[in-house]
Every structure is written in structure tokens, then in C-alpha cells.
Design a protein that fits this description.
The protein is mostly helical and 151 residues long. It folds into 2 domains: 86 residues, no CATH class; 47 residues, no CATH class. Helices cover 47% and strands 3% of the residues. The chain contains 7 helices and 2 strands; from the N terminus they run αβααβαααα. A two-stranded antiparallel sheet has the order 1-2. The longest helix has 14 residues. Bound molecules: zinc ion (ZN). Zinc ion binds next to helix 6.
């Protein structure tokens, strides 16, 4: 009751209990048998500070019903699958380790790098060190082109 009061008065997110987390995991597994209960329980456990149990259920079942959503991880990304009133209270998404001001799950710089072929597709929102000098070439290539023009 105290937590509910804090939420309404101060906008402090509620914490999902173990029992609630397991209940959501079993329910999602019924909708998506390919999503294992154990991995759902551990995923929910890592994201306990959600605005409310009802908001989590709406966001989770919406994602579970999206056939294009392969894994349950996107449930906890911000987006239209969360009720509008809950969106302002979602915990801040994890930042991209390589690009300041971008969220790891939807980093526009990483996505652009992937399209340009200088970042592997699985490395969006993860720290990536180019393996060969060819990967870092564009900045240097531009410099030598300018020098060439002057000569
Ligand atoms: Zn990035």
C-alpha cells in the first residue's frame, strides 16, 4: 500500500515481486511456447522497476503477440507497447557504450555503422573495436585525399 501511495504521489515505480514475476513468465510462456519460463523469470527479475504490474502485463502480452518479436527482451525497451501513462515512468534505457546520448537497443549511430558495413549486425549497442585498419580508414582516407589535391 505504501509503494502504491509513493507511486501515485511521487511517480516512483513499483517493484515486481517474485510471485508476480513468475505469474507473468508463465502467462507469456502460454502465449509464446518458444519463450522459456526460466529465461522469462530471469529477464523479468532484471527489470523489476516497472511502473505497475498492469503496465508490464500490457507491454509483455503486446510483444508476445507480435510474431516479428523473436525474443522477450524488447518487452522492456521503451515504445508504444507500454500504456501511455506508464511510458514517462519507465526506467532509463541502457546507454550505448560507444555513442553518447543513444540507447543501446536502438542506437542510430550503431545502426548506421552496420549499414555502412563497419560494424557487425550483432554489435548494435555493444562496444565494438574495429579489427583491421581498413575499418578505420574513412577519416584517414579523407585527409590523404585533401593532401593529394594540394600537391
Ligand atoms: Zn551505438
Amino acid at each position: 500500500m505504501r509503494e502504491l501511495l509513493d507511486f501515485w504521489l511521487k511517480g516512483i515505480p513499483l517493484t515486481i515481486t517474485d510471485q508476480q514475476g513468475r505469474a507473468v513468465a508463465y502467462l507469456l510462456h502460454e502465449i509464446r511456447p518458444d519463450w522459456g519460463v526460466a529465461s522469462l523469470v530471469s529477464l523479468i527479475d532484471k527489470h523489476r522497476d516497472v511502473p505497475s504490474l498492469g503496465a508490464l502485463l500490457i507491454a509483455a502480452t503486446t510483444k508476445a503477440m507480435e510474431r516479428t518479436c523473436q525474443t522477450p527482451a524488447p518487452i522492456f525497451h521503451p515504445g508504444p507497447h507500454w500504456p501511455a501513462a506508464a511510458r514517462a515512468h519507465l526506467p532509463k534505457p541502457e546507454p550505448c557504450p560507444d555513442h553518447v546520448g543513444e540507447s543501446a537497443h536502438s542506437c542510430r549511430c550503431c545502426i548506421a555503422d552496420t549499414k555502412a558495413g563497419i560494424r557487425p549486425p550483432g554489435m548494435i549497442g555493444k562496444h565494438h573495436t574495429p579489427t583491421s585498419e581498413d575499418d578505420e580508414a574513412p577519416a584517414n582516407a579523407g585527409a590523404s585525399l585533401v593532401e593529394g589535391d594540394q600537391a
